[in-house]
Amino acid sequence: MKKLLEISLGVVTSVGGFLEVGSMATAAQAGAMFGFQLIWAIVLGTISITFLVEMAGRFAAVSHHTIADGIRERFGFTAFIWPLLVVLLVNFMVLSAEIGGTAIAAELATGIGFQWWALPVAFLAWLLLWKGTFGLIEKGVSLLGLVTFCFVVGAVILHPEWKQAAGGAVPSLPHHDAATYWFMAVSILGASISPYLFMFYSSGAIEDQWDESYLGANRAIAGLGMSFGGTIAVAVLIVAALVLGAHGVNQVNDYNQLPLMLIQIFGFWGFVLFVASLAIACFGAALEVALQQAYLVAQGFGWTWGENLRPRDDPGFSLVYTLTLFLAAVPITLGVDPLRLTIFSMALTAASLPLTVVPFLFLLNDERYVGRHRNGVISNAAVIFVIALGFVLAVVTFPLQMFGGT
Amino acid sequence: MSSVDWRSLSLLQVLALVLASCSLSETVEQQSKLAASTAEAAVLVTDAWLSGAAPSHYASAALQSFAGTLGDAGRQVESASSSDPAKRDALKSSLSQLSNAASRAESAVKAEQRAQAAQAVQELRAGQADLATAYRQYFAPRR
Questions:
Q1: Residue to substitute from A260, A261, A406, interface B, most B β-carbons within 10 A
Q2: DSSP run (H or E) holding A368
Q3: B85 close to A (CB below 8 A)
Q4: Number of structural domains, chain A?
Q5: Residues A100-118: tens digit of each pLDDT
Q6: To the nearest whole angstrom, how far is the Cα of B27 from the nearest Cα of chain A?
Q7: The domain containing residue A38 runs over which residues?
Q8: Alpha helices, DSSP H only, in A76-214?
Q9: Which of these, A79, B4, B45, B120, could form a disulfide with B104 (CB 3.0-4.6 Å)?
Q10: DSSP assignment, residue A149?
Q11: Is A248 left (phi over 0), alpha (psi -120 to 50) or beta?
């Protein structure tokens, strides 16, 4: 019974943690411009992240190592430093975008410009990390993130042509704006297959002291949690297609256009729901990414780490999330457009995928770490597919950014 | 040798001219599409404010931003050189009309003047129709 409760809670937290500014913005832009045609990118991204999250959890539960730990130990520090630097840089931009998303929500709620909110948001996040526990961060904020379920309700109310929506799950060639179409596909994949998500998940499994008895729970949480999260992202795309796209608002280049998605369905409450969804989803993601930065550096350098420890007991770990949070708030304070930063950082995330996913192939097949719980044929095929996809994305991202970036 | 140089030079010039004209017409097309989308968003926001579904601070900030985008689009179209300046000017004029209408909607929302906001929506609609006509004429094949 206790395990069932833990699984339910894990699924709920995965759902709450899935949607953030990247998946929301990319799905909204894609739906507004291309209707249901890019649903396949969300489906592909969700399947890929499900496999990676399951492997990250299995690796942590069996080996009692996080993925970052495993990479450093297995390949040595010299090999670890490159993915570390790239992931730190990408995470930094994603964190900045998440702080920007929360700041936009605060602007929408109050009318005070988003630039003024970046530092208070960073401070609030820091305070929660400094004073809170892992359970509070993981479950509290993610449970609140369930408010994003309003997009699913909205999509159902709009009565989409479900057959047509299902057709969008099959990749197809664009009928117009080809470069933008592929750039959007890359950005959606970057927003879905975020390295911080599976790396955070493996650190969380260690924080929650998982062992081999959690393997079933891990599979359920990864599968159901990511699927439900992906469903919410698809709902955002459907709502954007049926509200923004259908009205002719097909170039979403201004965050002020986004609340219209729910206003058209729920009236004033739609505005409230949108602001709450954006604020909670982005704030939750900001907490997770800031923690992930600290996990990465602390695990990379072999420092003591743990969100459940007091800051004086893991000073290096606490210093990293403190510095990261406040530095990431600077670009938003200086007026960088959060929406543009989001789309750019999602594309960069996609380009950095090979560096973070290639080690899975070695770690999850190394008996010294995972014993008899090694990857099977399907898991290995999934990793090879994601690696190949990652290489393609790494090659095409920057040309597409130049020709199709919004 | 010298004639070959001249030929490659003129080839390069023609290529540069073709690329420049492609990129200029692309600018005009992109800006027109962006303006049409932004104008529709301005209509939706003003309508939402009129029906009480959007708070004033959000509606006015959104309309101010949309007016800025429409103004920028007009300036970009104006700076694009065209073989038919009259058609380009018609496009530019419809974009200015839209930008002004969005600004008027913003002022009306700020002043809580519902009648003026409704009037601004009508102007936005008229501007959208003018933009569509100017766009069709700009990209109409020459006889």
A1: A260
A2: helix A367-370
A3: no
A4: 1
A5: 999 999 999 999 999 999 9
A6: 13
A7: 2-404
A8: 77-110, 118-131, 134-135, 142-144, 150-157, 162-167, 178-192, 195-207
A9: B120
A10: G
A11: left
